[in-house]
Amino acid sequence: MVLVFDKVEKFYLENDRKLPVLRGIGFELKPGQTLALTGESGSGKSTVLHIAGGLEAPTSGSVYLAGQDLTAMDDTGRAALRRTEVSLVFQQFNLVPSLTVEANISLHAALSGRVEQAYISKLVKALGLTGQLQKYPEALSGGQQQRVAIARALAAKPKLLLADEPTGNLDEATADGVLDQMLDLVADTGAALMVVTHSPKIAARMDRELRLHGGILT
Amino acid sequence: MMRACLVALLSHWWRNPLQLFAFLAGLALATALWSGVQAINAEARASYDAAATTLGEGQYDQLVPRQGNAIAQDVYVGLRRAGWLVSPVIEGRLADVRLVGIDVLTAPGGLGAAEMDQAMAIADPEARALLFANAATARALEGVAEVQADPGVAPGVAVGDVGVVQRLLGRDDLSRLLVLPEQPMGRPDLASVAPQLRVQSSQQAADLEQLTDSFHLNLTAFGLLSFAVGLFIVHSTIGLAFEQRRGMIRTLRSLGVPLRLLTGVIIVEMLSLAFIAAAVGIFLGYLIAGLLLPDVAATLRGLYGAQISGTLELRAEWWLSGLLMSLLGTGAALAGRIWQIRRMPLLASVRPRAWAMAGAGRVRWLTIASVLLLGSAAVLGVVGSGLLAAFTLLAFLLVGAALALPVLAGVVLGLVQARTTAPVWNWFWADTRQQLPGLSLALMALLLAVSANIGVSTMVSSFRLTFTGFLDQRLAPELFIEVDSARQSTALEAYLSDQGLEVLPLLTASRQIEGQPARLFGLRVSPTYRDNWVFLAATPDAWDSVDAGSAVVVNEQLARRAGLWVGDVVNVAPELTLPIAAVVGDYGNPKGQVITSQAVFRDLYPDSYPAQFGVRSDNVPRLRQKIVEEVGLSENAMTNQAAVKAISMEVFERTFTVTQALNVLTLGVAGFAILTSLLTLADLRVPQLAPVWALGLTRRRLARLELLRAVALSLLVFICAVPLGLALAWVLLNIVNVEAFGWRLPMYLFPGDYIVLGGYAIVAALLAATWPALRLVRTPPATLLKVFANER
User: Fold this and answer.
1) For A94, which of B1, B251, B790 is closest by C-beta distance?
2) Cβ within 8 Å, pair A111-B1
3) Model ipTM?
């Protein structure tokens, strides 16, 4: 399994009051499998994604990423896993504005020490970014910026790709194109994919769909 | 991983060269001002040390004449024969160089190493006709004497064998005798061998370093103030750089860069930049010191007779301190940001700085801190004593007022906004308030610079007025004459009296009075003194009491240091205690003075004679000529007081050239702080300006409003700076001056000067705002539209 959630609970404290976000959820994700996580706003979708990526720690329960218990790790350990086993694609792209497109694409791979130039060139070509490499993110459209973010995520050859509303900022036609490319590339690498989305259309294109309601999987 | 992380961080500077320039330039300017001042101080101190070791001052007891300036050679021989281990020294001036003659065979072995080398050279029979001096002094003696360059000799001094110097000066006597530390047992008393000499202990000898410490302290304070203003720039630039890189930091962390590594790389990055800025700053400081050193040297020579080298050396003590201050300053600004990063949740949103900082908590913190600091300043003003307390008071006052500025500005802008009904102006004032957190550091820097300017210009102008009056008072006699012997003194006084002129003979001696080194004067009370001298405090019949020998006049320095005032008694000598009839202001002299009648003086020094005379005359050139012809004095023995006054005023003007130069630099640095803040805030302001632009305000009008905002804020700063500057001046005049120099100066106000300064401050702010305003005019509509497209 690439990802295992076991009885995961998450509470936030607000004015000394516990606000439950996740109430003992559990699921598994196999290599190469794609999963859509859906649910209304505030249902805890993004929290699941953040815990899976080691960005947040659960209040209780266990999370295994690539066979390693995330809940037993400190910040440095979780950072190492993020660097090597998992990649994230955000709705707001989160590119580094002062780096060129080329440097942005290589950034994650460079941090993990796994830059494969040939593979990166293949990704660039597949995502239609060949003519954009020396530009800065501000000169690109939203769709192009999201393609750069996807290229950056895949260039690190992660075991798990996590995407938070990856096409939420894009128009429908652009969103369809970006999603097609992302699914094709994930299939090529054999990585698992978990997408947080509101869109039934996107969810329908995944192998599985999990729906969250009030912090519980339904 | 570290390399990729560093490349990403550095790419921010690459894409924002202006911000990088602001950071480097701010820190470099701050370091330059600090290290420049330190370089001047280090050079001066090195010169004092060289002078002390060359001349033996402050190291050995000395025998000096009770009266006059010369010791006959046979007196020295008599002392040696009686068993006194003394070494002769002759001093005099030749071609504006201080010649010092020593006798190598009898000189104490404790002279510095460099001097021992000279001594060995002087002892060489071949070199006995030589003088030794540093390169600059050697050039001054070209054609006058044979000089060998030696960098170890104090500036303005040439050292040689006592016989050589006697020949060059045309004298056969000595100036003083150094007393060797080891003396034989059973030697006779000095009074029985040489009653005309007295022992001046090493502690009593004029210690230049001590005398000039206050001057250097003032310079250091200004260097520190400039450094503080520079640090505002660094703090502001680092802050903005971190705000703008907040998104990048979040992205790097989400890509797996550990927090510890990230903060480590940031620290290395910032300290490396600080190191570069410090190197540039130290170089600039060297240039500044090189430019200012001649004025400082002239000031110290004029005020204290201290000879400072006119050339600057790269001494580790000042450039290391510049480097250290630069790194510490960056570290201080960095520490808070690193702490924020460590506390920042990984998924924290990237919010504009203005919103993040405008919280009520920050206002509360600023208010509490400023009240505490200003309260502490007030307490120190009442109960503190000493220079350290005075400068701590100044620091508390300035920092407290600076912290209060954003709070006060927020209140004022809120009140103005509340009285505005027009929608555009309502937005303008609200937007100005919102910008305050982002601009507050730059505004604080401007406040410090303007108030320092007001404070220092008030002090300088007050000093100028007081000093001019003091010179008129002290230099009232048109001609000043010095004589070398009792015979000359008697002849001169007789001649002048025969001419029916008002003669003011002056008897002087150095002695310890009330535990302090002081000069005792015996004078003939005449109408000139009665008409011209202005006392700080006096009994109604002060001059009559002095004339009658029943009271003395003391200068302010002695009165304040000894805690005495009019009506108190002063212990002039063990057998003589007299009441103080008046306290007189004495500016430009750090030593204590006691003025008695001639009769009282002669009771203490029966063999004394007036060696100095003031003479009232309508025709000074003719009188000089007649004195030369009929009394036989040389032209060099006479000084035209008008010329002395002119020279003194020139020295005075140069005294404050350094301060004024530092003031201008500080104001320039503050203007630069505003420029960098506005430029770095410009990008963050696009989302605030875009909606107003969309509602119909043109970019040109928005730019004009930006300029108006700069004027409004600088005017507000200036209004706050006036009372702060006057408070600064009051502290400088009434506390720092008293502690450092021993005198209190009256404070005069110069509203015209302040208005001009206010104009400069507004122009500086306007100039700083011009570039960002032009950038705003040229901002493409597409950039503003991106705000609505959520693509920024």
Assistant:
1) B251
2) yes
3) 0.80
